[in-house]
Amino acid sequence: MWAWLTRWLRPAAPLRPPAQPATFVDPAVYGKWREANRRPLWLPVTQEGQLPGSASRFGGAPDLAADEVWPRCPHCRATMPLFLQLDVASLPAGAPMQVESGAGLVQLFGCTNCGALSEDGSAVARLLPPAARQPALMGHDTPLLTPRSIVGWQRYEQRPTGSEWDGDDLPDDEPEEAQAPWEDHHGYGRDMLGGWPSWVQYAEYPPCPVCQRPQRLLFQIASEEGLDFMFGDVGTAYLLYCSHHADQLAFSWQCT
Predict the structure, then answer these.
(1) In Å, how far are 49, 80, 197, 228 from 253, measured between CA atoms?
(2) Pick the CATH number of 39-156+181-254 from 2.30.320.10, 3.65.10.10, 1.10.357.10, 2.40.50.140
(3) Which among 119, 48, 44 has a CA at the least distance from the CA of 87?
(4) In which residue ranges is the amino acid composition biased (Acidic residues) (predicted)?
(5) 38 versus 10: which is more confidently predicted?
(6) According to the model, what pLDDT value does residue 188 have?
(7) Cα separations (Å) of 93 from 21, 40, 96, 116?
(8) What are phi and psi of 36, to 5 degrees?
């Protein structure tokens, strides 16, 4: 008898609110946002080899001053090959880093012995101050990636994609756009200076360690285009920097 009354006296479970339908952004609002956030980008024009007088390049030997060291992997202790080197002073007018710093040498190194590159020290990104430098001396076992010198730039303007949108849902039937010059025939991003990253998975902007502002793209590196290296399974790498503290660089990569 008491058990029967307990069931009837038990308070009723609260009713769940009805599911709210998805709210899609007005296409006109989304289009206006994209136009307002255009960014310039530059595709590198390259030639095979480490050409004299061309400090910007993929692979090869880094340029170092007498007191500068070639980074070693903290895990296997191997000399890390150069992935990318940019002479800031020779970058196009208006390009990222050229505006904020104006001079110096950006270098990106990565260990190719320890498997996947990560943020545990197996990749080093740095901005060196202007100085007299020469290609580093190498031993017979110094690992090098095939050098390709950057001898010019092609400028374009790029609108952000939906991966950068932070608002109401985008409609599922968002119209497809023609292949852009900064995309390959699979739709993946190519090597480029500046612009909006072609995220393989999702937008990922680390905060600057100094001011906590989100960093922005300096250079995007595709697998096996200018650099003779594959990031995971045909992945894409991103070198980012703080526009207020140009010496604060970050490196990441994504793949499917």
Answers:
(1) 25, 17, 11, 15
(2) 2.30.320.10
(3) 44
(4) 165-177
(5) 38
(6) 80
(7) 47, 11, 9, 35
(8) -70, -15
- Residue written as tokens 């890390």? 80
Which pLDDT tens digit goes with each residue over 59-112? 999 999 999 999 999 888 889 999 999 999 999 999 999 888 889 999 999 998
Higher-confidence position of 75 and 9: 75
217's enclosing H/E stretch is: strand 216-222
Q: For residue 8, what are the CA distances in angstroms to 11, 12, 13, 14, 129? A: 8, 9, 12, 16, 78
C-alpha Rg value of the chain to the nearest Å: 24
How many angstroms separate the CA atoms of 119 and 93, rounded? Answer: 31
Quote the DSSP letter at residue 121. S
Residue with tokens 């300096």: 218
Residue 146 makes CB contacts below 8 A (sequence gap 6+) with 48, 59, 60, 228
Q: What is the percent of the chain where pLDDT is above 90? A: 59
Alpha carbons 91 and 127: distance in angstroms, whole number: 14
- Give the pLDDT of residue 149: 98
| Cα–Cα distance for residue pair 218/97, rounded to 1 Å | 7
